[in-house]
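User: Some background: our group keeps a shared notebook of sequences we're curious about, and every so often someone picks one and asks for a predicted structure to add to the entry. Today it's my turn. The entry only has the sequence so far, pasted here. Could you supply the structure so I can complete it?
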Amino acid sequence: MSNQDQFGPIEYVAVEFPGSAPTSAGFEQLLALVDSGVIRILDLEFVTKAADGSVSVVPASTFELVDFDLAQFDGAASGLLDVGDIAAVGEELAAGSVAAVLVYEELAILPVIEAWTRSGAKVVTEGHLSLDELAAALDNTAPDTTEKDA
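Assistant: Of course. Here's the predicted structure to add to the notebook entry:
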């Protein structure tokens, strides 16, 4: 089975930039991750929320940053996110803000999965742990430090 037949874990993140435009911070690192084969961008949408509460998707080239050309991400908007996804992000945004919503595939694990499947193993399930779920799990594994016998 080749990497083209497999998908790595699919993740998403929505990042709000207060004010009417994103900042360039992070976008160069995002390109570096893509160029090095660590991730593949499946969708990158820019969502704005107007003062009246209306939410819309705009092309990356809408934003003119002094030190970074976001227009290079215009082709990354695949439409994978549906109207409900965009509305959910919009509910979280402050009026006058913009969010970058990134759906990406983690590629670094694919060689491991491929080696396992070549040897007869199969992926039976996969998923995502939210930070809240991870914190709860860690809390449940922490030793009880209260004194029981005083």
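Suggested note for the entry: The two ends are 61 Å apart (CA to CA). Strands lie at 10-17, 39-49, 55-58, 98-106.
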